[in-house]
Amino acid sequence: MRPRRAVRSGISVRLEAGYNESIRYMAAYRKTHKSVELPIWAELLAGVELSFLWISPVFRGYGIPHGDGSAVVLVPGIFGTDFYLAQFRGWLQRIGYEPHYSGIRVNTECPNLLIRQYVAAAIEKAHQSSGRKVHVIGHSLGGTIARSVAAQLPDRVASVITLGAPIRGLAAHPAVLRTAQLVRQGILERHSSGVLPDCYTAQCTCNFIESLIGKFPKSVRQTAMYSKSDGIMDWHVCRTGDPDVDVEVSSTHIGMVFSPLAYRMVAERLAE
């Protein structure tokens, strides 16, 4: 009698493929930071994008879907404060949402601590205020924080939108990597044994990193915006790899929080 061949079901094959993809993703994310020569000078155009925003019908709320009163928490990028997101906050309020700041004074701290001390509390406050799940939008490193906290609090978060956020590792202009190293040194000096030795690197094993490389909750809708004109972050690491999630917009990195194109896409994604 001939030995019976083991037959794998289609489900088994898909599960194995998904597992292997997760392993590859985690390995890629754990790699050291990559320096990429990018046209950082183009970021000077962010002021032009802000000027276009002020005269755009989108900024006035015309021609875009309006909100249902849901709460939205905004998370700033590295060295950013809630202040530079004021235009974004005012626009969200005009189109029918209940915007909340993250509470982060200056984003130069361990992301894990920022989540525990500020962002999680802001989401809980927004959830209690609106009585329903919250949308979280983050710019640059703030988007990475937003995605991590959404994975940690799926019972509180309805959707997460990242704007030029490094969500598949960090590949950026050399000046950004040097700045990140200075931030890391400051964190280690301030907190010493209060943070892990690899804090502010892809090798860290804190909840912040583990939430990024783990399986993302299906209940949380995702949008990852990226721009091929980004002069600070390599646009390849700002995508998830899922065409239903990834959205290309034409803007600078800094100007993504001022771009009428990004605002229109945010309105459409929030209304889904």
Structural account:
The protein has 272 residues and is α/β, with parallel strands linked by helices. The protein has one domain: Alpha/Beta hydrolase fold, catalytic domain (Rossmann fold), CATH 3.40.50. Helices cover 41% and strands 13% of the residues. It has helices spanning 10-29, 46-55, 57-60, 86-94, 111-130, 141-152, 174-191, 207-213, 260-270, and strands at 34-35, 71-75, 98-101, 134-139, 157-163, 171-172, 221-226, 246-248. Helix 6 (141-152) packs across helix 8 (207-213). The longest helix is centred in the first third of the chain and has 20 residues, at 10-29.
Keywords:
Rossmann fold; two-stranded parallel ribbon; 9 helices
Structure described in brief:
The protein has helices at residues 10-29, 46-55, 57-60, 86-94, 111-130, 141-152, 174-191, 207-213, 260-270; strands at residues 34-35, 71-75, 98-101, 134-139, 157-163, 171-172, 221-226, 246-248. The protein is an alpha/beta fold.
Q: Give me the strand/helix succession.
A: HEHHEHEHEHEEHHEEH
**Whole-Å distance between the termini?**
58 Å
Mean pLDDT: 86
In the predicted model, the low-confidence regions spanning at least 5 consecutive residues are 1-30
Please tell me the total number of domains: 1
Q: Strand-residue fraction?
A: 5-15%
The tally of strands reads 8
> Counting H and I runs of at least 4 residues, what is the number of helices?
9
Largest sheet: 6 strands, parallel
Describe the global form: globular
CATH architecture: 3-Layer(aba) Sandwich
Structural class, please?
Answer: alpha/beta
Give the CATH superfamily.
Alpha/Beta hydrolase fold, catalytic domain
Percent helix, as a range, is 40-55%
Question: What is the third-level CATH name, the topology?
Answer: Rossmann fold
CATH class: Alpha Beta
| Radius of gyration from CA coordinates | 19 Å
Strand order of the largest sheet: 3-2-4-5-7-8
